[in-house]
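#structure-requests
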Amino acid sequence: MKTNSMKIRLLLFAFLALSLNTQAAKLPPGFIEERIAQGLDPTTMAMAPDGRIFIAEKDGRIRIVENGVLLEDPFLEIAVDNFNERGLGGLAFHPNFEQNNWIYVTYTVPNQNHNRISRFTANGNYAPLQSEEILLDLPRLTGTIHNGGAMAFGADGKLYVAIGDGANAANSQDLNTLLGKFIRLNDDGSIPEDNPFANVLAGENRAIYAYGFRNPFTFAIQPGTGRIFANEVGNELYEEVNQIESGKNYGWDEIEGYYQGNNAPENYQDPFYSYHHDIGCAVIGAAFYNPEIVNFPPRYEGKYFFGDYCEGYIKVLDPETGEMMETFATDINRPIAMLVGPNGDLYYLDRPGIGNGSMQDNTSSSGASLWRVRYTGSGAPFVSDHPDDVLVSVGEPASFEIQSNGAAPLSYQWLRNGEEIIGATETTYRLENCQLGDDQVQFSCRISNEISSAISETAILRVTSNRRPAPEITSPPAGMNYRAGMSLVFAGQAADPEDGELGNSQLFWRIDFHHNDHTHPALTNLSGANQGEYLIPQVGETDDNVWYRIYLTAYDEEGLAQTVSRDIFPQKVSLNAQTQPAGLRLHVDGRTVEEAYTFQSVVGVQRTLRAPVSQERGGEIYVFKEWADGITTPYRSFAAPESPQSYTAIYEEIERGNGEGLLGSYFNDPEATFRTSPVFQRIDPTINFNWAASSPQEDRVDADLFTVRWSGYVEPFVSERYTFYPSTDDGVRLWVDDQLIIDQWVPQGITESSGSIELEKGKRYRIRMEYYEAYGLAAAELRWSSPRTPKQIIPSSQLYPDDLYAAQAGESVYFFPNPFGEQLSFRISDHRSTAYRVDIVDTQGRELWNRLIFHEPQQTDLEVPTANWAPGLYFVRVNVNNRTTVYKVVKR
């Protein structure tokens, strides 16, 4: 919750955020950026081995960018506590993801006030929730900030997770909690025996690898060296980049920035680099520039990139010297994460918004984008990828290739033993018909532009009179088809013209899984065997445009190699998914379809179908009943059968109620007792409010110290156990059917509570929700769910306000409709000739309409124009025969 001065600051930051978002980032000469995806609410991202970028969003969704396109359907949707800095925070791929399809996440568990580390199994571009394996539940949190959550696998194959102090600084130095720590786990969540405190601490605390952290929100592991650099978001003065080492203490909450005292804490390690809040306020993003192909100028190779969330820049740090090299980018609206692709491009996520710790801004910021930074060339040329050595047999060709960059135009000249080769001016040089005289010749390439030139490393050509061996794959037979889940048995042999039959030690196997136009390694580097076995997985890829290619490579004594391959293709089946009635939505392997959907599948591959428990079409509501084959769970997973099959989800139409909402009575009520009269009443269609620092009705209700009572009736869609979820800042009480099911009458940031009760279709139950606002931000929402009702704001159609029906004076006077809109109708039904005096006043006692009516039997009708009246409560005073009765009516 914020003070009034903070409210002003937030408005200023909102203006600055809009200003910053009007221009692209400023980059060094020769660099350009392009927006790849937008409309995100991100916390982090990771790149799969095949180049797909997975983006974690705070609300629990993981989105995929594939071939430069943001896919519409999420890869995964996890229920999370998404408030302030809570939500989905970490994302990592297992080093053998292409074989086991394991992806790891950290997230805040709803209604449990702690974070969790879990593993899911991908099945193509979708991970079923049912695949979750909970690896570790972290300790309970003190507040809603300092979650940390970054995660990555190290060079040692262990999972490293950065954990914040949970808003309690004392946790960081306490080795009896995982909060404020770096932890190290095996890939199944167990604790490695070589952890620094594995033999000192007990239980889950044996996972601690390093300690003394406040909020290590991002970190990166350098390819090759395995060095871990973590960005520690500071408190009042300093931001830190720490090199994480086993058993070290990084000082918080005793030290911030470089140590300047005399008595350092035990095992203390100073920051690798630190900067003052004069130049930034939150260190963010982390990436080492060590791609497979170096496309940035050579000065960036091996360097560490990080950003500042507040100042909107990306800087470059030398991890060898600790020197700050340069500011690489500026004018970014809140960078939050970055990564380097194998082709040398840099990706970063921005997260535009107010910033400065605003809780509602931290909770949701849907205007974020994914950007790709490429080097198009500027300055002196340099080599991105050098040519490799080549070994050939006499008469064979030899090819050498180079990749380079620099200011265009670039020219190429290949050199043989330092002498120019006439006509060899392309990026590739091919020498035909190699002879023994070419043995040990050195080839290199000179790249030039108008600025200068560069020479590649030398590649050596080896030529031998030996002939290549001849491998042969004897199994599986050509033309064999496979099914997922079967064991693929392969065998082969090889003979060499000089050496004769080759031994098993000279045979090497590899299996690639082909998917569309790219490949994934399935089996790598099986050596020393003339046969083997590979279990074809049932989970991993649902596309049917797939096959396997088996490679057998034989090497002779001199190192000459020959490779042969055999392709095996899948057995396929046609499957169909549809709904009854037709045209409703289904999710097939995570993909949303709205018509009968026929698709090809590899036999044996695990497929998933999910029927939404309820959905709306044309104003009608449909609730899932069962599948046509009698399965009653909306989610089903199965291995694709050998023969065609159709799956039909059967829905029943649910009659929607005709409610209009609940009666909202608003009080200026510093004591939160509801003992005063309401200052304002109206029909609220739903309870779905985020007033932030404002008032529900500025001319009547104070911005702080007010209460609201919503009252009326609720009607369930189906007969089931319903769970109600009020989410409020501050206190809330909820009664359903006159039972108090939630009592959270305490000051708090936006917090979701829950309570359950059995309800019967066709009945209306009394409901009353009482809410109070203390100081600062204000919000109130009310959701519900049941086994067949998805969690949602309770719709107005199922809510009925108090005094919904016509206000009736005795048996003879009616006002309708109630609530009313542009006009209020007034009817007298009396068998007597009588005078009626009718006055209508607002809650302030101001008279808005009056009439003296001389009624004659049997009926008198009048219409009161109310178009200019404000929504709220009004009182109708009816005087007949010197007796006055007051009734309530409400304008919507």
